[in-house]
Amino acid sequence: MINLDLEIAQVGNPILRQQAQLVQDITDEKLQQLMDNLLSIARDANGVGIAAPQVSESYRLFVICSHPNPRYPDAPMMEPTIMINPRIVSHSDEIVKDWEGCLSVPGLRGLVPRYKMITVEYLDRYGKFQQQELRDFVARIFQHELDHLNGILFIDRVEKSEDLVEKKSLSVS
Predict the structure, then answer these.
(1) 2-61: pLDDT as tens digits
(2) 3-class DSSP state for residue 136?
(3) CATH fourth-level superfamily of 14-169
(4) What Rg do the C-alpha atoms of the chain give, in angstroms?
(5) For the chain, what are the domain ranges?
(6) How far apart are CA 148 and CA 152, in angstroms?
(7) Per residue in 81-93, is it b (16+ CB within 10 Å) or e — as a string?
(8) One of 145, 159, 162, 166 is an active-site residue; which one?
(9) Are 62 and 149 in contact (CB under 8 A)?
């Protein structure tokens, strides 16, 4: 049963540490409503992505919606994209460290290493197979959200304690 009265789960909530389940029936009306709700929540929270486990729903589903906003003023503009049962099929050798935050880990930012370029596969909200090459910031969002589906938070990927800071001490919000 999908809860449609959604709040963002915060660090400490056990669902954020669980492996999310594969989506079986994309046409399910409540699942489609969950997708719409994720789009709204990400927009309202100035997020550039959000995963179903972040709203206490254990599904392999997330939204990427990169756009310039107060949290990420230099984010590239893209059409919001729902990604169901996503996976990385290949990646570059190049790894880049950059600052990340998370709607489920308020107040903290961390320098997180991620692949610069990835090739991904997923189903769109209509069940159509998609394959894309993602680079830079959008590739970072995908990897961050995919981690949520595997019970991993960005704070787990920070390599040293000095790379984890309160966001008020950074020039980024």
Answers:
(1) 545 678 999 999 999 999 999 999 999 999 999 999 999 988 887 899 999 999 999 999
(2) helix
(3) Peptide deformylase (3.90.45.10)
(4) 15
(5) 14-169
(6) 5
(7) bbbbbbeeeebee
(8) 145
(9) yes
Q: What order of strands is seen across the sheet that includes strand 117-123?
A: 49-51, 61-64, 81-91, 117-123, 129-135
What share of the chain has pLDDT > 70, as a percent?
A: 94
Structure tokens at 135: 């680079």
Tokens of 120: 């991904």
Cα 19 to the center of its chain, rounded Å: 14
The model's pTM is 0.91
Coil/strand/helix, residue 8: coil
DSSP type of residue 22? P
N- to C-terminal Cα distance for the chain?
Answer: 35
User: Is residue 67 within 8 Å of residue 81, measured between CB atoms?
Assistant: no
3-state SS assignment for residue 78? coil
Sign of CA dihedral 9, 14, 19, 24: negative
Is residue 145 among the annotated active site residues?
Answer: yes
